[in-house]
Amino acid sequence: MSSPHTTDTTPTATGARRAVARLATEILAPWVWVLGLPLVVAWQATGHQFGATLLWGLIVGVTGSVVPMIVIVRGAKKGAWDGHHVTNREGRIVPFAACIGSLAVGWVALILGDAPHQMISLAAAMLLTLVVSLLITFGAKYKVSLHGAVAAGAVVILAVVYNPWALVLTLLVVWVNWSRVVLRDHTTGQVLLGTVVGLIAGGGGYWVLEQMLG
Question: What's the predicted TM-score (pTM) here?
Fold first, then answer.
């Protein structure tokens, strides 16, 4: 016969597990990475110039994160999709279009503004990740995890820009991928595929572009 302690603590443990998963899903969401990563890359790319870091970092952050999130949150409030993470695959076409369109404008602004090549490469790698994810989501009809893709790509980019020690942040990729599965927003296959897309299109794309432009 089960003890009273076992019966009482099981729901609490489940609730705590979901709470930790929810925390990871929110603080390591794509929009958070896309807003913060450009500033970190710009700091190195501009030789630690505060004003230039804000300028180039915010161009990518605002067009890649803030503008799309305004569209996504407003759409969620109107019931156009199921929430700000857009977990239903069919509802992702407009959010993808908003992300790609807005970030493309930012990328053009970087080129026309003669931004550091690292920032141009960063925006291009982000665009590539979005386009590949879009093709998988609607071409193969498989809901690739953008949480996994963006997090994995960001970690590789940080390792390229700074040093390999940044790869310790892979633990954050594992955490956020775990969270998406625990919350049943993605399957294990979907988060693993997202991670591969991020590694190749995001991180790998950035590295290749830097070999060409650097």
Answer: 0.91
